[in-house]
UniProtKB/TrEMBL annotation:
GO MF, any single term: oxidoreductase activity
Lineage, uppermost ranks: Bacteria, Bacillati, Actinomycetota, Actinomycetes, Micromonosporales
Keywords associated with the record: Metal-binding, Oxidoreductase, Zinc
Cofactors: Zn(2+)
Protein name: Alcohol dehydrogenase
Length: 347
């Protein structure tokens, strides 16, 4: 099969013929029809995750079951499926209680094993992790769910528990941030979107942001949010992951507000400082969010099938494997207003 492979950390990825994977016991092989590229793929390429080389990235995928490993009960060849980027083991207490997103034995395609920038991808514990794609939902919309959209949904609905009329400030209007804007609106929130890219903010406005703040023009984000939201936001999301954005988000909250940290904070320059004095004095809840378990997908799929959420609107472009290999090393610098989708059937 064709796959995007790199042989060294920060080495140039290339499209290469590699052996087709075989289904692990309890797992499946999926023929990839759509797979998103996200900053996490760049982090793996840049050496911020433990991976084995040579490596095939890719963790936001949708496709068709191509073969079954021993013991798979719920799935058949030909089923249209997607999968969370965190795949639980299916056996531990966390998995058995519906919290596979924090499974200690988790597998992540594109990190713990070869991923979906390829024609085929192996997936573990299929009965725990696979999610059926309803007929009205396309492969690209479903692939768009796997990481950023599902993460944003869990962050706002599952962790922050946004309610009607609350102010939600989203810092970062990339894939996860724009997903958060759309989802916060669908939950009845009033959204302030913050970014340094005017084009991304324009998209945020079309997705329901009531206000947008361009950081190059508004240096004091917390003060601006306090003005707009009558003393501060009820909920903030840092969808970027830097000391600055994390602090801006926490300091933009009103007393007893809830902050969800979604953007990865890799310890490249030491772990960033968090304004803990404010967290203590104002009783701020600081919440982590890590993907979404397969058992929580059906409610999101139902909202998509009903047209109330439209992740496909976040897809900016679809490219082939060769273009993906070119794009990965510069993806941290790419200014795209939305998601980049890969179709492995393209060159
Ligand atoms: Zn588990
Ligand atoms: Zn991702």
């Amino acid at each position: 099969m064709r796959a995007v492979v790199f042989d060294a950390i920060e080495g140039q990825p290339e499209v290469r013929e590699v052996p087709e994977p075989s289904a692990p016991p309890g797992g499946v092989v999926v023929r990839v029809m759509a797979t998103g590229m996200c900053r996490s793929d760049w982090h793996a390429w840049a050496g911020h995750d433990e991976i084995t080389l040579p490596h095939v990235p890719g963790h936001e995928l949708a496709g068709v079951v191509a073969s079954l490993g021993a013991g798979v009960e719920r799935w058949a060849v030909g089923d249209r499926v997607t999968v969370p980027f965190v795949c639980g083991c299916g056996r531990c207490d966390w998995c058995r209680t519906g919290q596979a997103q924090v499974c200690p034995e988790q597998q992540q395609p594109g990190f713990t094993h070869w991923g979906s920038f390829a024609e085929y991808v192996p997936l573990h514990a299929a009965d725990t992790n696979l999610v059926a794609i309803p007929d009205p939902v396309g492969f690209e919309a479903a692939a768009g769910l796997g990481c950023r959209f599902a993460t944003a949904y869990r962050a706002l609905a599952g962790r922050a528990k946004v309610t009607e009329g609350e102010w939600v400030t989203v810092i970062g209007a990339g894939g996860v941030g724009l997903s958060a804007v759309m989802i916060a609106r669908a939950l009845g929130g009033r959204v302030i979107a913050v970014d340094r890219n005017p084009a991304a903010l324009a998209v945020a406005a079309t997705l329901g942001a009531e206000h947008t703040l361009l950081t190059t023009a508004v240096p004091d984000v917390p003060a601006a949010v306090a003005d707009l939201a009558g003393g501060g936001s009820h909920v903030t999301v840092d969808a970027v992951g830097s000391a600055q954005t994390c602090a801006d988000a926490i300091l933009s909250l009103r007393r007893r507000g809830r902050h969800v940290q979604v953007g990865l904070l890799p310890p490249v320059d030491g772990h960033p400082r968090v304004p803990m004095a404010r967290v203590i004095g104002w009783e701020i809840d600081v919440l982590g969010s890590h993907g979404m378990a397969a058992v929580d997908y059906p409610e999101v799929m139902a909202l998509i099938a009903a047209g109330r959420l439209e992740p496909q609107r976040l897809i900016e472009r679809t490219i082939g494997l060769s273009a993906a290999a070119e794009l990965l090393p510069v993806f941290d610098r790419a200014t795209v207003a939305g998601m980049t989708m890969i179709d492995p059937r393209l060159a």
